[in-house]
Task: inverse folding
């Protein structure tokens, strides 16, 4: 497995590899867990050359967010990448060139849900992913449904700009009690870790009520809220799975229930498909 420690090294690797087959890219911020590993494993059979990127991207953190404390484990991450068949790992110390002055923004999809409380987040994500796609010249790239809004934004970005990359989604990998795996789970105290399972429990309660015929989203949200044990809810919403527009009544179209909530100083997110269009 090759270690690529600069954008120039990634570009040179990609230039050589694309002559002999397709390139797959798994973008991450590191501190890899089984959710990340599932994305590497899912992409392995659909490309000839597979690169994982590990970069804690300052552009996607707000001023008061956890950039300085974001967990890191370079050696563990390299072992995970190797174990799941990566051909190369891009671990740059610097990502952006001197004089960098470009921001990629996707409107509409980025305004609600996480975008409402993290107004610069998705521009940071779209900018770094566009740069990663450009440097790696990847044919296919994969993102977790854990960050459902991010996946929708990046699909929109690739389609709108005609970028020659197929964007795939991978299912959410969970702990045995249902908590979606996240690098940020490491921040949780023992008591908060126990309560954190209530995010997925609340979404499952909403799913179960929908399966029993409840169509009214306000009623579904009330059911979810009664199961949510957190310090502060950011949002608990049901949206159209394609447009991310709020839904009042479940109907034929695929819908998604999403939650974001704070436990102490840790913000967690989760989501599930809901209703018969799923
Ligand atoms: P991150 O390192 O948090 O930026 O995540 C890198 C990629 O892994 C993103 O596409 C995430 O959506 C995905 N991911 C994170 N957690 C999970 C999970 N529990 N299951 C599946 N994918 C995940």
Result:
């Amino acid at each position: 497995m090759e270690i690529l420690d600069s954008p120039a090294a990634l570009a040179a690797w990609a230039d050589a590899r694309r002559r002999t087959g397709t390139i797959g890219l798994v973008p991450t911020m590191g501190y890899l867990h089984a959710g990340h590993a599932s994305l590497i494993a899912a992409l392995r059979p659909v490309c000839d050359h597979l690169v994982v990127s590990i970069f804690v991207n300052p552009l996607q953190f707000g001023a008061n967010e956890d950039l300085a404390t974001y967990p890191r484990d370079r050696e563990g991450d390299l072992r995970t990448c190797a174990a799941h068949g990566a051909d190369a790992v891009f671990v740059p110390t610097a990502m952006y060139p001197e004089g960098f002055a470009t921001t990629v923004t996707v409107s509409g999809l980025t305004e609600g849900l996480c975008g409402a409380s993290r107004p610069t987040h998705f521009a940071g994500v779209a900018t770094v992913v566009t740069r990663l796609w450009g440097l790696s010249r990847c044919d296919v790239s994969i993102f977790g449904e854990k960050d459902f809004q991010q996946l929708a934004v990046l699909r929109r970005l690739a389609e709108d700009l005609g970028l020659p990359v197929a964007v795939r989604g991978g299912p959410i990998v969970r702990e045995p009690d249902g908590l979606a795996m996240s690098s940020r789970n490491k921040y949780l105290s023992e008591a908060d870790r126990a309560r954190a399972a209530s995010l997925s429990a609340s979404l499952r309660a909403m799913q179960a009520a929908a399966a029993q015929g409840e169509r009214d989203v306000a009623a579904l949200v009330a059911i979810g809220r009664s199961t949510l044990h957190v310090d502060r809810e950011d949002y608990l919403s049901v949206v159209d799975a394609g447009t991310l527009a709020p839904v009042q009544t479940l109907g034929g179209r695929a819908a998604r229930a999403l939650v974001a909530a704070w436990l102490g100083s840790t913000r967690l997110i989760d989501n599930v498909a809901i209703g018969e269009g799923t």
Q: What stands out?
A: Strands lie at 2-4, 23-28, 49-54, 88-90, 140-144, 166-170, 232-240, 255-263, 266-274. The chain is about 35% helix and 20% strand.
